[in-house]
Amino acid sequence: MPVSQQSDKTVLTHPSGASAEIYLFGATLTSWKIANKERIFLSGKAILDGSKAIRGGIPLVFPVFGKGKAPHVTASLPQHGFARISHWKLVNSSDDAHTVTAQFGLDHTMISEEYRKMWPFDFSLIYTVKLTADTVETHLKVQNIGDKAFDFNTLLHTYFSIPDESKVRVVGLSGMDYVDKVLMASAKQDGEIAIRSEVDRVYANVQSTDLQILYGNEGGINLRRNGVSDIVVWNPWVEKSAGMADFGDEEYHRMICIEAGQVAEFIALAAGGSWEGSQILSVL
Ligand code: BG6
């Protein structure tokens, strides 16, 4: 079966052997394998029972990035919003000679009363995962199905599995302005990004559609964006890792988050409006 539903997750299997797994909790993609090699990082301490956002994979940030700030309507929502901590439904699946597809849905009737009070808008999210022999595409459609406009941020918060943080280079952001959330300062990227300490940066309005995460002589990943303009780069390093109960102290060596989305500014979506954005990952 190209798409099979297990109790808590959906498994996509491509005739080439490529596969992907998506938990209904958060519609969090937790695995993407090509040539039997895992490309996505999932913490050994990740909690998978729906009591906490999954630490790893591709959690979906919506409708706020980080903590909202008063007086904005997102101020009381949990960090990174409710999409990653709500139970989604598998709404569709299909396959043809090249692509295996699964679609997941979340709307305002499916979130908790508590979140609904915090964010009182009628919305529908459709998240589509398309697996081919050598790519995985994750695509989010946001629809405002109510009669009031709303603002949102969104992010495909992708944790990549890497051989060793000291070998990783992120290429394609040189010359871009960013906000450094560690130093609380603005700066301009000069050349490639290397991980030598805690990194938490927001690059707004990135021009090139593609960036590369290179693993020394062990290949890497190409990330192509469609319809989203910002990139967040995150590695928690020593102290932040020690402070996270669902993340091993040494796991920062084996992951980097490169997160494509719309976070520097809110997107305003008029009543009846819709918005779409996606990323396509391919192995280099
Ligand atoms: C990143 C943020 O997107 O997510 C970081 O830029 C944050 O500041 C990280 O620490 C992880 O967030 P969380 O809520 O999953 O611990």
Automatic annotation (TrEMBL):
It is an enzyme of class 5 (isomerase). The active site is at residues 157, 259. One of its GO terms (molecular function) is glucose-6-phosphate 1-epimerase activity. Belongs to the glucose-6-phosphate 1-epimerase family. GO terms for biological process: carbohydrate metabolic process. The lineage of its organism: Eukaryota, Fungi, Fungi incertae sedis, Mucoromycota, Mortierellomycotina. Catalyzes the interconversion between the alpha and beta anomers from at least three hexose 6-phosphate sugars (Glc6P, Gal6P, and Man6P). Keywords: Isomerase. This is Glucose-6-phosphate 1-epimerase. It holds the Pfam family Aldose_epim. Its EC number is 5.1.3.15. It comes from Entomortierella chlamydospora. InterPro entries: Aldose_1/G6P_1-epimerase, G6P_1-epimerase, Gal_mutarotase_sf_dom, GH-type_carb-bd. Substrate binds at residues 55, 79, 84. GO terms for cellular component: cytoplasm. It catalyses: alpha-D-glucose 6-phosphate = beta-D-glucose 6-phosphate.
